[in-house]
């Protein structure tokens, strides 16, 4: 467990997909109507400042708590929302309160419903709790001189780049070209009579990345192919993804949902997307694609390419070598004299806080499941979807979260059997605002902002919510959810909302009701109704029973 408090510092991913398939990576939060006006990006409201220390704290105007906010303000809103016709065939669970857990409004807050991608809040908190915001996933290269096998060992970096390192970007922070160059240098230095330094070893204290000491150095560019162990007899490149286990797809996902998530193999270029600019459509073997890119880089950068590329085990893939908190690999300086595979180079991906931001902003399922798998492996649980869900829950229990009837069949929310009560979602969000857990603060800061970015970029524009509501979205064919924070009257409040179980055709109306409720929490006028106005004859009085006429009830 890592609890240090050092904190490191989008697009919509699809649209509603009917027929029971996963609904557009939360982009389905777009509903035509008064809540989706096009408008300039709003000014994002800052988090309220805490008061400065003072010898007389009672005399200082403190940041108001919700106990000073009249809970009666929300009574009518809660009643009208819960009985709105758009939710007639749905189950509803929500909770609204302050950062100390004081409740302002709720409806069935302990009811565990299909939570969709708000599940990623639990995954992000567990990962940061276990590793801290600065931890980085690894990719290790090892060489077996006896068998002439070069191993590329995946340790959970799903955002590898095909080119050189790009430390200013979360995607490609660690590049396979750079790792290949380090590998060539390491093996060139092992040949008799070659005086070049071996790649690897602890990096300088001023280095931004903990990887091979020769990374991007003149030595890594001054190659000597003729003296490399890669030259001469043929060798085999072996892709080792064994640490992440063999369960790459969840049995709980529905048919067609694999368009929204890639195989969880522990190694991929840009999560394995076929089109790097898209948010769906994944390669069937992203680790294999990464391996081919690495092989091509070896050949292109001056080393001999492998005679073949295959999947296998190095015998090195373990928590001791690959866990983000384990000591960095000690690369061998006597490869030619060793027996069996030994590490010769490695790369580290972007800091966890940056990966978590990418996951939360665009609701990336592949990153969520991969982070959950890392949590499972760190806690010595099984590297499966069920094992990952159980490990995330155990981590949250350590943080004091009462999970109630929560069930996690994975860590992305893509499984319909994943169920979370709104109160649990709210408690997890509340934890991320706690002064006792600064290592978790990036979660609240990195969720989408209404009307500004991520999966909420085109939602709530031109409304009171724009810029002051932060939230993690969740959308499946029968569920939509939202959980995060909002600011009202210079007070920061926590909210969590899950609407689930409605027919697929009711997705749009339920989202519209949710958006209206969120704006209502900020004081906006709402127009909830027990009956659909469109289903009543023109002369019917407000609240009159709907006509049984097919024409009158048709929409």
Automatic annotation (TrEMBL):
Regions of compositional bias (Low complexity) in chain numbering: 545-555
GO biological process, one term: peptidoglycan metabolic process
Biased composition (Pro residues): 535-544
GO terms for MF: serine-type D-Ala-D-Ala carboxypeptidase activity
Origin: domain of life: Bacteria
Leader sequence segment: none
Region (Disordered): 191-231, 528-555
Keyword Hydrolase among record annotations: yes
Coiled coil stretches, renumbered: none
Pfam families for the chain: Peptidase_S13 (PF02113)
Entry keywords, A to Z: Carboxypeptidase, Hydrolase, Protease
Stored Gene3D superfamilies: DD-peptidase/beta-lactamase superfamily
Catalytic activity, EC: 3.4.16.4
Family recorded in the similarity comment: Belongs to the peptidase S13 family.
Protein name: D-alanyl-D-alanine carboxypeptidase dacB
Gene: dacB
């Amino acid at each position: 467990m890592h609890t240090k408090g050092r904190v490191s510092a989008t697009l919509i991913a699809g649209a509603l997909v009917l027929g029971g398939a996963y609904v557009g990576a939360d982009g389905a939060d777009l509903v035509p109507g008064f809540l989706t006006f096009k408008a300039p990006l709003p000014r994002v409201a800052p988090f309220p400042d805490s008061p400065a220390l003072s010898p007389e704290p009672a005399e200082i105007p403190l940041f108001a708590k919700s106990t000073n906010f009249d809970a009666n303000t929300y009574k009518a809103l809660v009643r009208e929302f819960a009985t709105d016709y758009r939710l007639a065939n749905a189950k509803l669970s929500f909770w609204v309160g302050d950062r100390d857990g004081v409740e302002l409004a709720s409806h069935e807050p302990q009811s565990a419903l299909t939570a969709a991608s708000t599940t990623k809040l639990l995954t992000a908190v567990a990962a940061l709790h276990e590793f801290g915001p600065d931890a980085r996933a690894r990719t290790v290269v090892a060489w077996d001189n006896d068998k002439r096998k070069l191993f590329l060992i995946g340790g959970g970096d799903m955002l590898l780049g095909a080119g050189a390192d790009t430390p200013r970007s979360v995607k490609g922070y660690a590049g396979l070209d750079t790792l290949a160059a380090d590998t060539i240098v390491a093996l060139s230095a092992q040949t008799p009579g070659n005086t070049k330094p071996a790649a690897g070893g602890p990096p300088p204290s001023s280095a931004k990345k903990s990887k091979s000491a020769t990374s991007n150095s003149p030595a890594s560019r001054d190659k000597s192919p003729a003296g490399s162990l890669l030259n001469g007899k043929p060798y085999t490149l072996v892709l080792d993804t064994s640490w992440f286990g063999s369960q790459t797809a969840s049995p709980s996902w529905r048919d067609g949902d694999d368009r929204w998530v890639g195989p969880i193999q522990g190694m991929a270029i840009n999560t394995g997307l076929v089109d790097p600019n898209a948010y769906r459509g994944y390669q069937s073997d992203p680790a294999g694609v990464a391996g081919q890119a690495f092989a091509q880089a070896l050949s292109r950068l001056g080393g001999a390419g492998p005679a073949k590329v295959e999947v296998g085990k190095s015998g090195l893939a373990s928590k001791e070598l690959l866990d983000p908190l384990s000591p960095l690999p000690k690369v061998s300086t006597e490869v030619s004299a060793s027996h069996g595979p030994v590490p010769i180079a490695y790369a580290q991906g972007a800091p966890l806080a940056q990966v978590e931001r990418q996951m939360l902003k665009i609701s990336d399922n592949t990153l969520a499941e991969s982070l959950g798998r890392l949590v499972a492996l760190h806690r010595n649980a099984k590297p499966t979807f069920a094992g990952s869900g159980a490990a995330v829950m155990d981590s949250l229990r350590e943080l004091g979260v009462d999970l109630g009837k929560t069930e996690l069949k994975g860590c992305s929310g893509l499984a319909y059997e994943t169920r979370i009560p709104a109160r649990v979602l709210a408690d997890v969000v509340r934890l991320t605002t706690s002064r006792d857990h600064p290592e978790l603060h990036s979660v609240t800061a990195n969720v989408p902002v209404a009307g500004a970015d991520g999966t909420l970029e085109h939602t709530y524009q031109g409304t009171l919510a724009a810029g002051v509501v932060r939230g993690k979205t969740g959308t499946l064919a029968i569920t939509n959810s939202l959980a995060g924070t909002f600011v009202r009257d210079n007070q920061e409040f926590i909210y969590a909302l899950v609407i689930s179980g409605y027919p697929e055709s009711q997705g749009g109306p339920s989202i519209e009701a949710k958006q209206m409720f969120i704006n209502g929490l900020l004081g906006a006028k709402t127009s909830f109704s027990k009956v659909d106005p469109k289903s009543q004859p023109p002369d019917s009085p407000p609240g009159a029973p709907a006509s049984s006429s097919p024409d009158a009830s048709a929409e």
